[in-house]
Specification:
single chain; two-stranded antiparallel ribbon; 5-stranded antiparallel β-sheet; 14% strand; 318 residues; alpha+beta
């Protein structure tokens, strides 16, 4: 009876493996979209994305190498660090904010890119030795990068051609204040508010004037006050003028040299200026990697993406 049980158990195991393989294949090929009777499978989408970005395998391999090494060294960025950096980028880069707000599915990938960039920086700087004198030099030379800047937070309305400027301005000056969304609804296709959640932030280096008189004038506005600015640089996009309504001015402050976050920023920046290039670090990670792929050509292709100079040197000259 025992041999029969072993054979039965083996056949059951084989059957299970076959069913798993068939399920995975079915899952990748089953329709996830159907248009006019035509099916689009997950495999169709994956194949298309790989064709559009042939570097995708190298990108994914690099991310695995970066994460595994950063986790091993205890320097993998936390979720809070990523969220803080992401929110700061949204606040100060209106184009980035508009992109992720109108395409919310991009948030995860943008946060992932921030996480891997920070991990790369930490891998490059972890073993670079810098002393307090170097940190002081870093602060003195690049002071504006570490002080908290003054911030003018505004409702910044971009008016396109033929938009009734006087009417839009009247709505902005109305008390109680009209929400930007209400103004956009009142003038569909004629008004756009820039910034994250309709709040546009302008930074001014602490202790200094803004880069232009027009921007400096914004910092003198009182909450609720409205000012008009020419939209010269945006006229090619059909812009007519810009109206700014002050929300608040948030004063900046000098960096505290002893604050742990400031100290870490200074250390990383000073280390990056003195550290080795990323290609050297990547070469070490790649050389120590345990790599396998079902496609035998993947290793050479990925290596070519990582080190094109090395691949060119290895190619026989004609």
């Amino acid at each position: 009876m025992r041999p029969a049980k072993l054979i039965f158990g083996f056949l059951l195991f084989v059957s299970l493996v076959i069913n798993v393989v068939l399920y995975v294949k079915f899952r990748s090929r089953r329709p996830i979209i159907k248009v006019n009777g035509e099916n689009i499978s997950k495999k169709d989408v994956d194949d298309y994305l790989e064709q559009q970005n042939p570097n995708v395998k190298a990108i994914m391999v690099e991310r695995v190498l970066v994460k595994s090494e950063a986790v091993k060294q205890g320097i993998w960025p936390t979720e809070q660090e990523i969220t803080d950096t992401y929110n700061e980028k949204k606040e100060t880069d209106w184009q980035f904010a508009r992109k992720v707000n109108t395409n919310p599915w991009m948030e995860a990938e943008e946060k992932s890119a921030i996480q891997y960039d920070l991990a790369r920086h930490r891998l490059l700087t972890k073993d670079v030795q810098v002393d307090d004198a170097m940190l002081k030099d870093e602060y003195d030379i690049y002071k504006g990068d570490y002080d908290t800047p003054d911030k003018a937070r505004l409702h910044l309305a971009l008016l396109f051609r033929k938009a009734p400027v006087a009417d839009v301005k009247a709505m902005l000056e109305k008390v109680p204040q009209q929400a930007p969304a209400d103004i956009v609804r009142a003038f569909p296709g004629q008004v756009v508010f820039l910034g994250d959640k309709d709040v546009f932030t302008i930074k001014r280096v602490f202790g200094k004037s803004a880069p232009s008189p027009q921007l400096e004038a914004l910092f003198s506005l009182k909450p609720g006050e409205v000012k008009e600015f020419p939209a010269e640089e945006l006229k090619a996009l059909g812009a007519q003028t810009i109206l700014a309504r002050m929300v608040e001015v948030v004063p900046g402050k000098a960096a505290d040299f002893n604050d742990p976050k400031t100290h870490e920023k200074l250390r990383m920046a000073a280390s990056l200026r003195r550290g080795k290039p990323w290609q050297e670090k990547m070469s070490m990670l790649w050389n120590n990697a345990d790599f396998w792929s079902e496609d035998p050509s993947d290793k050479g292709n990925v290596e070519m993406m990582f080190f094109p100079d090395r691949a060119a040197a290895a190619t026989p000259k004609q």
